[in-house]
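My main concern about presentation is that the manuscript never shows what a single data entry looks like. In essence, backbone conformation is discretised, so a fold becomes a row of integers matching the chain in length. An entry of this sort, consisting of the sequence and the corresponding backbone structure tokens, reads as follows:
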Amino acid sequence: MDEFDFIDEQPQRRRRRRGSSGLLWNILSTLFLLATFCIGGVSALIFQGAYNPFPAGATSTLVPTLGLPTARPSNTPAPPPSPTPTFLNVATDTPTVEPPTATPITPTEEVTVTSDGPPTETTEPGSGNGQYVLQPGNPAYLESVIFDHLTALQCDFLGVAGQALNNEGAPVVGLQVRVTGNLAGTPLDLLSITGSAQDYGPGGYEIKIADAPIESNGTVFLQLLDVAGAPLSDVIVFDTKSECTQNLILMNFSQN
């Protein structure tokens, strides 16, 4: 084979290859056109109402819905429920407080304390119980008429009198002289102050016990006290007489 013949053979092979590929593309194009026509025809039928893919009597199929997963029981105990607070109705009204009414205090009558026996001796700090004693010869029973201020009473008097002197013999004024006990069933609680009856001396005292002489034995008592009521002498028990000549009992005190 000469060179000229080889060159003419190659263009023929190329034309054969081009012819086979062109046939394939023609077939594919035809199929695409047919598919396009079919789709267009179906669309036209649907638009005109001639073909309905969902007829009236067709039953729709429900799509199952996935539910939420069910919680599995756990071994961990559930927390206790929180307590529900209970609200109490609290009264908000402010109470009205009435001012207290003053109650008048009625003074009570003074009560005289009497005793059927000797008064109990009380000793207070500094009282000096027993500082004063009766002078020798006392008590002395006298007739009251020997004193001018008692002369007019004659026998209508029964009492005790005297005075208090310090350890230098000077009169002491302002001491209390108390008579207690009972006389013929009548309670006694009588008081006098030294210096109040100077017919018996500057430090004299006098206590009227009854309006007439009455006899008694060991039921009448006398004691000397200081201004605060603390005892300065022992309790002295004395008798009274029923005679008019002995209706005044004299008791003088001297300081120890």
Observations:
- Residues 1-50 form one domain.
- The chain has two helices and ten strands.
